[in-house]
Amino acid sequence: MLKVVVFNIIILLICWILFCIRIIIKKNGRFPNTHVGGNPALSKKGIKCAQAQDFEAGIQMNLFERLQKDS
């Protein structure tokens, strides 16, 4: 049982190091921004994430439209 736990911890440690190797080696390294809003090509096309689009749509609606949408 102890051998299995130690083996799993070693495997997880190796995976973590491989996952973070770019961040560990580079000075001021960061994970890449994979969010839709962080993609310059999509921003040029006017594509935004669903949360941002919902927020903008909610701001543009007046009170009457919001009440009709809820019912």
Plain-language structure description:
It contains 5 helices and no strands. It has helices at 2-19, 21-25, 40-45, 50-60, 63-70. It is elongated, with a radius of gyration of 23 Å. The termini are far apart. The mean pLDDT is 82.
Summarize the helix and strand pattern as letters. Answer: HHHHH
Tell me the distance between the termini: 58 Å
Spans with pLDDT under 50 lasting ≥5 residues?
A: none
Structural class: mainly alpha
The largest β sheet comes out as:
none
**Rg calc:** 23 Å
Strand portion: under 5%
So how many helices? Answer: 5
What is the oligomer described by this structure? single chain
**Could you tell me the mean pLDDT?**
82
Shape summary: elongated
**Share of helical residues:** 55-70%
Tell me how many strands there are: 0
